[in-house]
Amino acid sequence: MSKFNILYHEMVPEHILVPAEEEEEVLKALNLSKNQLPKIRKSDPVIKSLEKITGDIEPGRIIKIVRKSRTSGIATIYRMVIGE
After folding, report:
1. Each residue of 6-55: pLDDT tens digit?
2. In the beta sheet, which residues pair with residue 62?
3. Is pLDDT above 60 for 1?
4. Which residues make beta-bridge pairs with 15?
5. Cα Rg of the chain (Å, integer)
6. Distance CA 21, CA 67 (A)
7. Which alpha helices (H) appear in the chain, and where do they start and end?
8. Which residue, among 14, 9, 6, has the nearest Cα to 64 in the 3D structure?
9. How many Cβ atoms are within 10 Å of 47's Cβ, its own excluded?
10. How far is CA 39 from CA 4, 18, 54, in A?
11. Could you tell me the domains of the chain?
């Protein structure tokens, strides 16, 4: 049985690790602190799959999620990775 990469499933929105040097710009544009962002666990299956591509993702990093929206076309949200 082959393993399926969840990131390629049509129902999973695109997840992008925000480069560390761009995190401050994102937070400034949103007028938020990291702790105010919605959270996503490091143990989340999407984060596990993303780590296979980008390498280890430490807690505190920001993930950009781009999903299709019926009302706005494309919706972009950000989440902060937290521990297990």
Report:
1. 888 888 899 999 999 999 999 999 999 999 999 999 999 999 999 998 99
2. 80
3. no
4. 65
5. 13
6. 23
7. 23-30, 45-54
8. 14
9. 19
10. 25, 14, 19
11. 8-82 (3.90.940.20)
CA nearest to 17, candidates 82, 79, 68: 79
81 near 60, Cβ under 8 Å? yes
pTM score, whole prediction: 0.88
The two tokens of residue 38 are 């919605």
Q: Structure tokens of 65?
A: 């999620």
**Helix H or strand E segment including 40:** strand 39-41
What would the two tokens of residue 82 be? 């937290």
Token output for 55: 């390498």
Q: How much of the chain, in percent, has pLDDT values that exceed 70? A: 98
> Can you give the length of the chain in residues?
84
